[in-house]
């Protein structure tokens, strides 16, 4: 593995059932680390569904990117609401700047 993620992830039911699914809110206090001197970076990548007021829309985000060099770590905290089915990945950033080689991460 050339990347590693860690930190805490909290969530709770918020806003009731929307479109047949419970909506959640919460926050992250997370970090991403680039473990390989291969010239590429690392990213904390999220997939989730976001309520847009009338339907659930599949979304992705890269809230943390490490582009400063091998063995560097970047941390970030943020909050969210009206989401469901959040999945967290630690990924390599490929030569085109997109995430690749993702491994599901576990934050506590």
Describe the protein's architecture and organization.
The chain is built from no helices and 6 strands. The mean pLDDT is 92. The chain has 108 residues and is an all-beta fold. It has strands spanning 3-18, 21-34, 41-51, 56-66, 73-93, 99-104. The chain has a single domain, classed as Immunoglobulin-like (Sandwich). Strands 1, 2, 3, 4, 5 and 6 form a 6-stranded antiparallel sheet that branches.
A few lines on this structure:
The chain has strands at 3-18, 21-34, 41-51, 56-66, 73-93, 99-104. It has 108 residues and is mainly beta.
The gyration radius over C-alpha positions equals 15 Å
Count every helix, treating DSSP H or I runs of 4 or more residues as helices: 0
Q: Rough shape?
A: elongated
Strand segment tally:
6
Identify low-pLDDT runs: none
Biggest sheet layout: 6 strands, antiparallel
Topology (SSEs and partners):
Blueprint: E1 3-18, E2 21-34, E3 41-51, E4 56-66, E5 73-93, E6 99-104
Antiparallel strand pairs: 1-2, 2-5, 3-4, 3-5, 5-6
Features:
single chain, 108 residues, mainly beta, Immunoglobulin-like
């Amino acid at each position: 593995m050339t990347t590693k993620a860690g930190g805490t992830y909290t969530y709770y039911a918020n806003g009731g059932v929307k479109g047949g699914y419970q909506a959640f809110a919460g926050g992250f206090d997370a970090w991403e680390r680039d473990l390989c001197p291969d010239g590429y970076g690392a990213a904390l990548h999220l997939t989730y569904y976001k309520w847009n007021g009338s339907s659930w829309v599949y979304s992705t985000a890269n809230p943390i990117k490490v582009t400063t060099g091998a063995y560097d770590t970047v941390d970030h905290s943020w909050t969210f609401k009206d989401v469901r089915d959040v999945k967290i990945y630690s990924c390599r950033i490929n030569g085109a700047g997109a995430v690749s080689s993702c491994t599901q991460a576990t934050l506590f």
